[in-house]
């Protein structure tokens, strides 16, 4: 039986999808296992409709396999799944940040400082949920002034999977993330897009390495692949 905290009936399918992702990433739902939709609905305290909508979203992300009239299964995930997700982020998100940082306003910088303080507070209280919320908000502001909407959309899609949850399941992730976010804030305050992009690429690469080791420990299958990411630029 899954150890998922029941949620309100007003829960949206997006939040249901987040709860299911968390169960997969924590090893509560194993790759290849069938998803008992009725049991899951009961545990989350919702109807079948948001469960079905969430599973469609997770299938689009590659985490779930849907078969008409048969049900849903956790996809046969491999470490290549993680490599692909983080490699794509390491290519795309730094470019969005590079274009955004020179355009950040003083209000944006105030928001970054606020969320960095929230990261520090969450780390000191070992509050993974609060850390994830502040982490996501920090990244959103940092790339918010990117003038390329398609690039923004691609990065948003990649954020639906692993990145928001890694501080909750990777040991010492909060401490490392907070330190790296401090460097990103310095780049933002200097309106230095190139330095921010290089720092972001390295931040994503390290996060991907740590996530890979976590899932290797859960028994995810290794394949003949490796994390491919841009070489970090010259940093100060």
Furnish the topology, listing elements before pairings:
Layout: H1 13-25, H2 37-44, H3 48-61, E1 64-67, E2 71-74, H4 79-100, H5 106-124, H6 128-142, H7 149-158, H8 166-169, H9 173-189, H10 193-217
Antiparallel strand pairs: 1-2
Helix pairs in contact: 1-3, 4-7, 4-10, 5-6, 5-9, 6-9, 9-10
Report on this structure:
- With 236 residues, the chain is mainly alpha-helical.
- The protein folds into 2 domains: 13-74, Arc Repressor Mutant, subunit A (Orthogonal Bundle); 79-217, Four Helix Bundle (Hemerythrin (Met), subunit A) (Up-down Bundle).
- The protein has 10 helices and 2 strands, in the order αααββααααααα.
- The chain has helices spanning 13-25, 37-44, 48-61, 79-100, 106-124, 128-142, 149-158, 166-169, 173-189, 193-217; strands at 64-67, 71-74.
- A two-stranded antiparallel sheet has the order 1-2.
- A hairpin with a 3-residue loop joins strand 1 and strand 2 (71-74).
Task: Summarize this structure as a short list of keywords or feature phrases.
10 helices, 2 domains, elongated, Arc Repressor Mutant, subunit A, 2 strands, 236 residues, two-stranded antiparallel ribbon, Four Helix Bundle (Hemerythrin (Met), subunit A), mainly alpha
Helix fraction bin: 55-70%
CATH architecture group name of the largest domain: Up-down Bundle
The low-confidence parts are none
Strand content: under 5%
Strand order of the largest sheet: 1-2
What is the CA–CA distance across the termini? 50 Å
CATH class of the largest domain: Mainly Alpha
Can you write the helix and strand succession as a string? HHHEEHHHHHHH
